[in-house]
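Each field is set out as follows.
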Amino acid sequence: MNSDPHRSEIAHHAYKGTPVDIDKVEEWLESDEDATYEELLSLFVGRARLFDQQAYDATAAGLVRYLLATRSTGTPELSTFEVLEYILAIFRMLWPDRKRHKTLLREIKNGLAKFLLNWPEKPADLVILVILEHLFSSPEVAEYFSSWRNHEVLGPAYREALDMATKGPPLN
């Protein structure tokens, strides 16, 4: 049985559809329990409308930092694949209001660059397949990442993701 009291509280908000305020978010983000973060990720990505603006911004920032910190190993609650899927979802949530979220979007971009620079080939493939290929279907997002184009390591990943986004994956 999970002893994390925040997990059931977050699940209650999801079930009842009750609003989430900044005080609750700050309390939840202070948790060191992976289960709390997993539940908060689910609530935030699935029901972001429950968060007022201040809670939304704090939650997005806290979750991005958590995901970037756990990216390469996953957690007992989340696989590396799931971590990357959540990063993709949060990026997509933030992008429409990119002027307001420019710092957090830059943090995600820099975090993805670190993934690609520090991971062996297979996990780097996950970044391309799970995140970049899908993001680059938007020309504006592809342009946002274009500073990677001529980088020794990031360039090939950028070009491969862009190619997959525009032409589809290779058939071999």
